[in-house]
């Protein structure tokens, strides 16, 4: 049975307990709105959560975190890290200020883990939204797939928790 794909915003808004994000790529530059290019040019990273750059994401995360939903993000990264991961690392202060918890796992420490093939969001340990990207980090088609299949949910939850357990909290991870 194929389920229609709800929007990310709907899934996040409907979350009651948790929303976790597993990121496993070394670049998302192909979908960047210009911040990465600015970072490469000048070293500047916008971490001002009251700025227009953060307005949409900030509003969603603050509202959800304010309701007591736990938001966790785990990133598996190759080392030495790419320029894009340096950029993400610099941006993460804003994610944390907005209410997310973030951990980093060097890829060499993930070798023994069973991981799904794509980045994902898992909501309330019941709904999985997979994100699909091209090699350069642009969105692939279809951009998203969605499932509530208990076996897939279990795999994704187990993978995330294993990464989280091994991951280094943001404040202790250096690039």
List keywords for this structure.
175 residues; alpha/beta; Endonuclease, Chain A; seven-stranded mixed beta sheet; 5 helices; 25% strand
Q: CATH superfamily, called what?
A: Endonuclease Chain A
| Low confidence ranges | none
- Which class do the helix and strand fractions yield? alpha/beta
Strand content: 25-35%
Shape: globular
Going across the biggest sheet, name each strand in turn. Answer: 6-5-4-1-2-3-7
Q: Which architecture does the CATH hierarchy give at level 2? A: 2-Layer Sandwich
Encode the helix/strand succession as letters: HEHHEHEEEEHE
Q: Largest sheet at a glance?
A: 7 strands, mixed
Count of individual beta strands: 7
In words, what does this structure look like?
- The protein is an alpha/beta fold and 175 residues long.
- The protein has one domain: Endonuclease, Chain A (2-Layer Sandwich).
- It contains 5 helices and 7 strands, in the order αβααβαββββαβ.
- Strands 6-5-4-1-2-3-7 form a 7-stranded mixed beta sheet, with helices on both faces.
- The protein is globular and about 45 Å long.
- The termini are far apart.
Write the layout of secondary structure elements.
Elements: H1 8-14, E1 18-23, H2 35-42, H3 55-66, E2 70-77, H4 83-98, E3 100-106, E4 119-123, E5 127-133, E6 139-147, H5 150-166, E7 168-169
Parallel strand pairs: 1-2, 2-3
Antiparallel strand pairs: 1-4, 3-7, 4-5, 5-6
């Amino acid at each position: 049975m194929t389920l229609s794909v709800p929007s990310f915003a709907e899934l996040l808004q409907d979350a009651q307990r948790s929303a976790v994000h597993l990121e496993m790529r070394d670049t998302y530059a192909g979908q960047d709105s210009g911040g990465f290019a600015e970072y490469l040019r000048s070293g500047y990273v916008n971490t001002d959560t009251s700025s227009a750059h953060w307005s949409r994401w900030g509003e969603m995360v603050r509202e959800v975190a304010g309701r007591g939903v736990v938001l966790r993000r785990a990133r598996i990264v190759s080392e030495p890290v790419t320029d894009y991961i340096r950029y993400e690392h610099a941006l993460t202060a804003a994610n944390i200020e907005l209410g997310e918890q973030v951990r980093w796992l060097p890829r060499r420490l993930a070798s023994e883990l069973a991981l799904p093939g794509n980045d994902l969001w898992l909501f309330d340990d019941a709904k999985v939204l997979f994100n699909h990207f091209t090699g350069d980090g642009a969105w692939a088609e279809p951009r998203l797939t969605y499932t509530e299949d208990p076996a897939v949910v279990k795999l994704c939850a187990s993978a995330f928790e294993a990464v989280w357990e091994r991951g280094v909290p943001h404040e202790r991870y250096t690039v």
